[in-house]
Each structure stands twice: as C-alpha cells, then as structure tokens.
C-alpha cells in the first residue's frame, strides 16, 4: 500500500496567515544559534544582499541564499533530502516573526539585544516587542509584505475583546487584515470569520500552523492561556496599576502592558521584587509613572518615548500623585526636589529618600531633565 499523501479532489485557494515554526522555544539554544548565524551572515554580506534586493533578481535561487541554508543545515542538524527545506523554514520563521527583514537586507534593531540577553524574562520582553511591532506572517525571505502586521492586528483584537479562544485564532488566520481599517476585529466579525474557517475546514487542513501560532502567543509577556478552554487573555498585573490618561490620545494597550512588565522586571533585577523606586517598599499597588508625560510624548509623535522603560519609574500611588502633578521632581543624583505647595510634614517624609544610581541611567536622566523643567515652571524656581 502506498504511503503517498493523497491529493485533494478539490484544491482550495485562499489567503491565510502562513506560519510554521522550526524552533518553538524562543529562549532555547537552537533558536538563539540559528538567529545569530543569520545575523552574522547579514552583517558579513550586507552590501551584496542590498545590491541583490535592488536588482529585483530571484533571491530564492541565489548563491547567497543557498550558502546561508547550508550554514543553517550544519548548525541545526537537519538531515536527509528535506534538510534544505527545513533550513528555509527556519530562516522564514525569523522573517515572519519580525526579527529578520525580507531579502535579508537587515534585522530589527532589538535583535542583537535579544541574542545577548541571558535572563529569560527579559528575553521574553524583547521578543514580545519585536513580535508585536514587526511580525508579518504574509512576508518571507523573498516576499516583503511588512505593511501587513498580523500579530499587531491579533493582539489589538484581543485587547478590544477581552479574550480569544482557539476558534477566534482560526477566525483571524483566515482574515485579510487589509480589509479592516480599525486594526482589529469585533466580536461579531470574529464569529463570522470563524464560520468561514469552519465551513472551509481550515482547522483540519492547517492544524499545525494554528498550533505553532498559539505556541508563539504563549510566549508573549502578560498573556495568560487556559489549556482546557484554549483561551488567551491579558493578565493585567494587579500590582502595577493603570492610571487615568487623556483619552483624546489613543494609548496602545499592548505596548503599555509591555512597558509595565519591563519596569517590573527592571525592579526585580535591581531590588529582587517590584518596589517603589523612591522608598524601596513593595506596596500592594504600584504605578508605572511616566517621567515625560505620556500625552506630551504623543503630542510630539514620539511613541518610542511613550513606551520607553527609561521614561518610567515605579512609584507608590502617593509618591506618583505628587510626581504626576509636578509637586516633586528629582535631581540627576536622585535627590527629591519638593514644590512650594507641599506641606512641611510631607516634605520631611519625601526628603528621607532618594533614587538610587542603579535606576539613574543616562536616558532616564534625560527624561528627568524634561520633568524638572515642568516642575520649575509650576514652582517658579522655588523649592
């Protein structure tokens, strides 16, 4: 009896989110080694790769691409007649998740930080930033569709709907995201797309790709997964509280969650747990307080600053209330500046403490200089 896979009687032509992962463990050695070899190859052949991209020639059959495939085969232990295919799958994986650019013309600016990071929690945060910002499942080594950001679309859909189950993931995977200008699907749209996935037997035909995407989503920071219900939701860490903001400026809920998680991990690395950076106490609730106000960042179209961990301080709700209103600020050596309207007894409490050098890196000092200008404007240069 032949083991040859039977060809479908009816071929199905469709656009769907194509994603098959060669390496599922993002903090594992194989993932890191494979990525590092690709990055070293790009750095070594940067000029030739850029020239090839400009020429518009078929990259899939180029000697450069074959050379990289051979290197990946050697380090990954792929064997047999499908070894080159496995190597191509591994390289394409890094393009689809946004780590490496199509045609190998470059890689995400955070990639080298990811490769060098040894702390698994910090590695997961860097992975989440790249995966959310840049993942494009319609791209591969030879095809540049980076304008279509599928994981961004999926996580915004999750943010808007509260949770997503396996059926919702399938619904998204058969969705042409270019048709949805809102950047996400509503519950009604998800249900409609699921019916299409069900009728077209998408889950029976693409179960591996569904499983691989779910596997990668499990590695996203602040996402929780119930394996019995096959459902994702955002954890919304109760220790790091949200505070009100001007809703006339849209906040990216996913980037904000990553920002809070990054501050928490910074505190754990420095102090062993999440604490208020001023008095070093592990309050039940802490605020991820912006130094340069969030709205100011968005007014200047500086989204990079709005979600920069260095533009944040973990503070207790009490300290944050004074810091947010510019009634206190900090010098570059961490001493507290207290405004004219602060009661003497409160002033005495604040002046007992200071920020440690360990949190006062140069980028954070730059943001504190901005905050001090606002503090001085409010207090007329008097303290």
What would you note in describing this structure?
The chain has 3 domains: 14-116, no CATH class; 149-235, no CATH class; 240-379, no CATH class. Helices cover 48% and strands 7% of the residues. The protein has helices at 29-44, 46-55, 63-76, 83-96, 111-116, 120-134, 150-161, 166-173, 187-199, 202-205, 207-217, 253-271, 294-299, 303-306, 317-324, 344-350, 362-379; strands at 163-165, 223-226, 231-234, 240-241, 286-290, 312-315, 328-330, 336-338. A 3-stranded antiparallel β-sheet has the order 1-3-2. Strands 4-5-6 form a 3-stranded mixed β-sheet, with helices on both faces. Strands 7-8 form a two-stranded antiparallel ribbon. Strand 2 (223-226) and strand 3 form a beta hairpin. Helix 1 (29-44) runs antiparallel to helix 3. The longest helix is centred in the C-terminal third of the chain and has 19 residues, at 253-271. It starts with 28 loop residues before the first helix and ends with a helix. Mean pLDDT is 90; it is low at 1-13.
